[in-house]
Each structure stands twice: as C-alpha cells, then as structure tokens.
Structure to design on (365 residues):
C-alpha cells in the first residue's frame, strides 16, 4: 500500500472518525483506524461496537491496500506535521509515514480482523437542514440523563412532520422541547437518538448543508457527503411529555436575558452547599428578587426589573439547571417564565426561528 494525501485533509478525516474509536484496552483493534486505499480514494473506518463511522477522501493512491493503525498515535503524529504532502508506505506489519523532513514507522494490526462495515436497509428516513438541526440539538442535549438505569432518558426524541422539526429531551427533573419550521417531506419521521451521538454528529467539521437520518430495526444511520455514521438505536417508548405541560399559568414574567444571566451568576456565588436560588415575583412592583443562601458562606440578593402578568409568586429552582437554559437561549434578548405555584414546575419559553420550552421541577424553599 502506498498513497499520498495532504496533511490538512488527513487531519480533518481523522477528526471525523475519531468519535468511533474504542477505548476498551481488551480490544486493541477497535482502538485503531482502518484505512483502505483504492483508485484515488482513501476510506477511513472506526468502530467501538456502539458507533461505526466511515469517511472517504480523495488521495493519490499508487498502490492499493488496507491496514489498521493506532488511532490515537496516528492523530498525534498528523497534528504535529506541517501542512504538506504526507506519504504512507507499507501496511502489512508496519507502515512508514513521511512528510517533508519528518518520518515515522508504526506497527499495524491485521485488517482481516477488522469487523465488516454494517449492511443496512432503511425502514424510514428524512433529510433535514444541518445548521438548523445542530442549533436545536445544542439546546436540548444537555437535558438528557447521564444515568444508565433508564437508557430511554439518554436519548433525544426527534420527530419531523408537516414541515416541523421537534426535539425533546428529559432527565425526569427537567424537560426541553424545541420546534422549528423546515421542509420535512411527506409523512412523519420519528426516532430516539442517543443524545451524545446526536451532538457528536452535528458537531462534525465536514457537515454539509443537509443531513439524511434513517432508521433500521436497531440502528440510526446518518449520511452526509462522503460520511456514514451508524449508531445503535435506543429501544423503548419515550415518556409522554405532552401530559406534563400545563395548559395555563398564574404568573407570567418577561425577563431580559443578558441582565438575568449576569444577576443569576452573581447571586449563585454563595450557593455552594445549596444549589437552589429563590425567585420572588412582585407583580405590583414589577420586580423579580433573586436570592441564595448557604449556612457556611452567607446570603446574596439581587433585584431585576421585569414585566409581570398575573399574581405575585415565589419559587426555588436549581441554578445549575437554570444556567443550562440561559446558555441554550443566549442568542435571545428576552425569555418568559411561566409559573403556577411554588410546588409545580416553572417553564421558561422563547420564540423565534427556533421555539424553545424548558420545564424545571422546583426545589424546597
């Protein structure tokens, strides 16, 4: 095997397949990157038994062949090289890598042992705008659960129908829902995608304008350009989140996002042992009072002018969770906080190109 490829395109290709590399030391083969050279094309594959990624780039291939090299080592080497032509030679037991005055020789693994790329037949599929979908995933994926006991809550529910995309995530303490208008084709597409996978795919450096998402009985398949990303599908029924959303509220508070974020950051400084921040809404005075306290550190208070519709009300919320909401809508100027009582969830909302709803369970005051 012998081929030449530019350092920049090689490094980009390695970054694309990096998320599929295994970290299990008992299976060193899956910590590697499979490389196949043929007819002007390089194919890279990674496989960690949950995720499989395939990516192709053009290259000057003098001798076709295949090999498996350490993904971590290869990436470390390529990062240090100048942006010039990189030549690979060998591959059966070792491979030589040269770039200008630099040269390396790496041990390789047997490509015959590499698992075959999965064959699949899509049962359903949709094509969506990548940039819009990426911004939506950024708003919800942190709300997915980190607990492995309920894998369904580690996923993001994706539905696409009637030219509306909707993403939903919950960890049972909070719920995030976002909607956006986009061409979705005919029928309804619905699947549950692992939150970390969804975020990794939409963060890839080679995303194209549109991304195809399809499903089999056990897989979710993403395709864009010369990249195919296959993940195991989360099985089960996503919680019926609609029944959790109240049809009305007793208090509606219009809040300026930038001022609120700054005030929350200051007030929460003392909330080290107690992550709750109290929200006291004064409907008559048009003021929201934020306060926090810690037995060891002391107390903090800040007043924010707000527009209030409805009655005065108080609620305590976990400020870490509130920050996740504020960070998700940092591009907005205003958000609305809707409250029913101090014992029922608070709901933050914003509207625009992407409509966002974030429901949060209260904590004891």
């Amino acid at each position: 095997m012998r081929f030449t490829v530019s350092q920049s395109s090689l490094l980009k290709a390695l970054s694309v397949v990096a998320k599929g590399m295994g970290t299990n030391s008992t299976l060193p083969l899956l910590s590697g990157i499979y490389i196949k050279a043929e007819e002007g094309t390089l194919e890279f594959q990674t496989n960690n038994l949950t995720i499989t990624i395939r990516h192709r780039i053009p290259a000057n291939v003098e001798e076709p062949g295949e090999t498996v090299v350490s993904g971590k080592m290869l990436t470390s080497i390529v990062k240090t090289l100048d942006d010039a032509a990189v030549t690979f030679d060998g591959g059966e037991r070792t491979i030589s890598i040269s770039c200008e005055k630099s040269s390396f020789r790496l041990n390789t693994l047997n490509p015959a042992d590499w698992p075959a790329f999965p064959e699949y037949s899509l049962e359903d599929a949709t094509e969506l705008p990548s940039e819009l979908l990426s911004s939506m995933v950024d708003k919800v994926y942190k709300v997915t659960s980190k607990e492995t006991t309920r894998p369904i809550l580690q996923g993001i529910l994706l539905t696409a129908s009637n030219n509306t995309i909707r993403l939903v995530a919950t960890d049972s303490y909070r719920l995030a829902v976002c909607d956006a208008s986009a061409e979705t084709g005919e029928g309804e597409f619905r699947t549950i995608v692992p939150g970390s996978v969804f975020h990794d795919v939409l963060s890839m450096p080679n995303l194209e304008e549109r991304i195809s998402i399809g499903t089999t009985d056990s897989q979710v398949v993403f395709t864009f350009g010369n990249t195919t990303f296959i993940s195991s599908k989360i099985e089960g029924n996503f919680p019926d989140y609609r029944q959790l959303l109240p049809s009305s509220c007793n208090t509606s508070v219009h809040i300026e996002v930038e001022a609120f974020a700054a005030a929350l950051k200051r007030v929460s400084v003392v909330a080290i042992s107690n992550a709750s921040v109290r929200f006291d809404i004064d409907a008559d005075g048009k003021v929201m009072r934020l306060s926090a306290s810690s037995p060891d550190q002391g107390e903090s208070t800040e007043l924010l002018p707000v527009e209030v519709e409805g009655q005065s009300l108080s609620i305590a919320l976990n400020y870490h969770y509130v920050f996740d909401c504020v960070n998700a809508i940092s591009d907005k100027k205003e958000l609305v906080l809707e409250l029913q009582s101090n014992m029922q969830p608070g709901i933050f909302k914003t509207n625009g190109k992407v409509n966002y709803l974030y429901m949060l369970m209260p904590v004891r005051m």
Q: What stands out?
A: Residues 246-360 form a domain with the DNA Polymerase III; Chain A, domain 2 fold (CATH 3.10.150.10). The chain is about 15% helix and 45% strand.
